[in-house]
Amino acid sequence: MLSTLLLNCNLEQKNKNTFSITFTDSLSKDVQDGRLLLLLAKDDKTEPRFQISDGLTTQLVFGIDVEGMKPGDEIIIDEKAFGFPIRNINDLPTGDYVVQALINRYETFNLKTGHTVKLPPDQGEGQQWNRKPGNFYSKPVKVSLDNTKTQHTTITLDQIIPAVEEPKDSKYIKHIKIQSKLLTEFWGRPMFLGAHVLLPEGFDEHPESRYPLMVFHGHFPDDFGGFSETPPPADMDTTDYSARFGIYGYRKFQAQESYNFYKQWTSKNFPRFLIIEIQHANPYYDDSYSVNSANLGPYGDAIMQELIPEIEKQFRGIGEGWARFTYGGSTGGWEALAVQMFYPDEFNGCFAACPDPIDFRAYCLVDIYKDKNAYWYESDFKKVPISSHRNYLGQIQSTMQESNYYELALGTKSRSGQQWDIWEAVYSPQGEDGYPKRIFDKESGEINKEVAAYWKEHYDLRHILERDWSTLGPKLQGKIHIYCGDMDNYYLNNAVYLMEDFLKKTNNPFYAGEVAYGDRAEHCWNGDAVNPNYVSRLRYNSMYLPKILKRIQESAPKGADTKSWRY
After folding, report:
1. Residues 6+ apart with CB under 8 A from 21
2. Organism's domain of life (predicted)?
């Protein structure tokens, strides 16, 4: 028995991988806080930092928090690091790897709430840890690992990601950036909001005209997307393959769609509107969800009271609720519905496509009010994993546990910059440590019912509509339009079904809007029942603007300016 124990101990000692990571003082002489990541890939088709995801093709990441790391300090990555998709670094299979390290650098924020937190500020890239300007990283190296031996590898961070180039103004696209007084006060340092503004044809030639404003919500845009004054080159490479849609040459197709929209935008009879895409990346994510939040601060009020009025002032917006509309997909779909509800007099309609969960009884496949665990369906004798992503055939690509373990490898305390963590950061109350309270334990999946109750009263859009319909209903009649594919990759259609059940039963008044589903359509379906999803997802503006024009014609108050912009 003793000899067996000794043998096991020897095997444990031999089967041990350690990596030491340091950074040079040529990058910085200051101490660093952040998330230190070790990245391994089986091939060098691209750097390991660009091969990490929660999908089937992901490579390996191991992460630890560091505070006060000095130049020359050797930080050890070993079995204590949290890994994904392999949990323990000692379980790495024998083989050849391309290895890289990176630190997602944190800065200290002294919040208005009195808390001090350490978070990665956005640096103009939209909260992408692997592309964030200022982050330190190492050049990839090839390493052979043998899981029967003890091995130690040293990695030096000696590279720094350069700054992002600011987009340039053109005839049609302008850019605006303001310091927000409200957000600066909350975060304890200067905080900014920005937007890309698409000007209507004839803007300069019609200085007397004032325009309706379209707020196109979505993830962080580096510039106004889907609009190009030039067609794609005839010889543009078309060998690229879209695995999602099963077609070649999708990049050229997208470029052609952008040019087609430009031609449509400048055509004689197309509506003359302002369209904006907002930049509101924050220390937790590439997007604030456009609402006030205990953890992110008053982004809703900052956008509505500071950014939009400044845009309407500079670019001759009408500046009244009947002439503002909002639309978007996914995150933008949730935002479109949320801002229409939370600022009901400030918008005249929302078009919410494939919205993030709008009823938390269907938080994707989890009911946060009834379920005990977010990772497993449980019975007396079985534990079945809950899916987080599927393709249009229903084939599972990732589970809830896997998606959240991926995030936990990238960052603790809701700091991964990924989807589940930002929902938590937006919807949760602030914890005693200043970070968001967990809706469920990130390792076990156990749901916190107190946090769930807070979510329900503050951000469950279906619940809020039902609870407050007597006051909200009269302000929202004819304004709510929701679209979702019935094979949405993230199961977002389930919450839309629940919302529709409520809306169909409304009275005094009846909601008088629209809910529609795309047969076998995946994520980003926006109500186009004619074209396949890979086409319709590129046509949000051209899909909704004619509907908005019709709404204005039917609902504009007497004496409203419905003519100066109709040239």
Report:
1. 36, 38, 74, 75, 77, 101, 138, 154, 155, 156, 157
2. Bacteria
- CATH of 173-359+461-555 among 3.40.50.720, 3.90.1150.10, 3.40.50.1820, 3.90.79.10: 3.40.50.1820
User: How far is residue 179's CA from residue 524's CA, in Å, rounded to a whole number?
Assistant: 32
Helix, strand counts (H, E) of the chain: 14, 27
**CATH architecture label of 2-160:** Sandwich (2.60)
N residues, the chain: 567
User: Looking at residue 366, what DSSP letter applies?
Assistant: B
Name the residue ranges covered by the structural domains of the chain.
2-160, 173-359+461-555, 361-457
Q: Say whether 173-359+461-555 and 2-160 share the same fold.
A: no
Instruction: Write the single-letter amino acid at 109.
Output: F
Only one residue has tokens 């196109």, namely 216
pTM above 0.70, yes or no: yes
Alpha-carbon gap, residue 49 to 101, rounded angstroms:
8
Q: What is the pLDDT of residues 166-188, one digit of tens each?
A: 999 999 999 999 999 999 999 99
How do residues 271-286 score in pLDDT, each as one tens digit?
999 999 999 999 999 9
Farthest-apart Cα atoms in the chain, separation: 94
